[in-house]
Amino acid sequence: MQPDPTVAAKHPPAKGSRLAAAAAVLVVVALGLVAVVGWFDPFAPPRPTDTAGQGTVAIGGPFTLVDQDGRTVSDTDLRGRYLLIYFGYAYCPDICPTSLARNAAALDLLGRQGESVVPILITVDPQRDTPELLKTYAEAFHPRLVALTGTPEQVAAAAKAYRVYYAKVDEGRGPDAYLIDHSGFTYLMGPDGRFLQFYRHDLSAEVLAERLRSAL
Question: Residue 161 above 50 pLDDT?
Fold first, then answer.
């Protein structure tokens, strides 16, 4: 039997039902767009994942680098302290100095509690960031800032462990005149080397200090 079109005409869907259905469609579309953008955006927050069902986060791992005094430093050498790690580079014009200054200010706001945290910069520009250059650069931000560099392979391994994106941008002004696109998160690692939290670059020093205080 064919449906009687007059019945539908006499009893159209309620306006509220139509609005609810339209809203549901918009929500589904919006969520789909967010998922697509988040998947392809190299600057999106890292995706913590469970490993072995223990709730541990697959961010961080072993590294061997060289500090601003020319000493070899591994992740195991830093165990027993909280680490506030930022990946950037000395020639960075904006986000790096802003983030490093913010991290330093947050530690100062914590007072004695902040002394349990080691601020760290790991360069994503080993070609130009020599230990000598990083020594001068680090002194401009915090007296306890540890600046680390290494071979391109060592830096790439550390960045991969922390899910850090970086890529050279050729400015066409010579082999050493380039910028580097990179993710701008700061990572808090526990004394046992486990990842605890990450912080966006747009947080203020005051907000970061409060979040660190609750995590330490």
Answer: yes
